Amino acid sequence: MRTFHYSTIKEQKWDMELLGLIAAIYKAAGKQELYLKQRPAELERLVEIAKVQSTESSNAIEGIVTTNTRIRQIVEDKTTPKNRDEQEIAGYRDVLSIIHENYDVIPITPNYILQLHKMLYRHINNPAAGRTKSVQNYISAAYPDGSVKTLFTPLDPFETPAALESICNELNRVIGNNEAEPLIVIPIFIHDFLCIHPFNDGNGRMSRLLTTLLLYRSGFYVGKYISLEAKIAGSKDLYYEALGKAQIGWHEGREDAVPFIKYLLGTILAAYKDFEDRFALVETKLPALEAVRRATMQRVGRFSKQDLRELCPSLSISSIEGALRKLVAEGELKREGNGKNIRYYRLG
């Protein structure tokens, strides 16, 4: 069976690009802490936006979808799920909320991971919920001609419980003893988790929830304000490419996890940069028109009023709509589409 020794992390030589990402994340995390002390009330709105985006994006990666309105209602717990997709979305909401509120008392153990997995399916009658896989699973790609190719074969079911326990023990030991940099250990743990693929279903979503949990436990809270899941969904091809490269030779312990480490660190840093951009818009109390004007200047291509709401969390949707009407009337923006499909773009 594959063995895991995270102590070797401290003995490896890491290139300057990877070390630069780590240094930049620590710097951004320090700045975020200062920002939160300055404008906590305005930034709290980002938390609700990120919850909706994270729940929507992580499920959408797996093909689990509903309308934007229903997503918001489900995340805000203002409606009852109507079908299986919405039941799975509600389960993700529940696990994400538990992590947000209790990350400091959720230890990284197989038992707790199984409990979180069971909660993921609490709205569905799924006998496999909270249990490791009972049949062999595969990571496959489906092609337009209908063919399917197996890209990676995870661990056998009988090896899975011991492997899951091993990576949890290794992570807790090296982080607890300060033996290795958490920002390297966390991506390696998530990569190993995905290669083990411990569940019959829900592995991708659990990996993203665990990423948030592990980052919180190590003092990196950007996922509370900027959705990491949305970042991953927006670069899904790069995510799968990095994961595929890092999986080569994994069963024999010969893998090079660096592509996946760099991908995840780059995603985390991009989220911190988004947070800084959004803080810049609330740092100075601007009139709604000027705040929306500056927000549109940060957008490339077409955007919706919801996109601007994320950049201007202190403004109501009616204020944003009013500002957009003025900017269109003044010739700064062009509006196209109707109803839910309305989009804007800058002119010049």
Question: How would you describe this structure in keywords?
Answer:
348 residues, mainly alpha, Fic-like fold, Arc Repressor Mutant, subunit A, two-stranded antiparallel sheet, two-stranded antiparallel ribbon, 59% helix
Low-confidence runs (pLDDT<50, min 5 residues)? none
Strand order of the largest sheet: 1-2
- The arrangement of helices and strands along the chain is HHHHHEEHHHHHHHHHEE
Number of domains: 2
Please state the average pLDDT score: 93
Helices and strands: which structural class?
Answer: mainly alpha
User: What spatial form do the alpha-carbon principal axes imply?
Assistant: globular
Distance, first to last CA: 60 Å
Oligomer: single chain
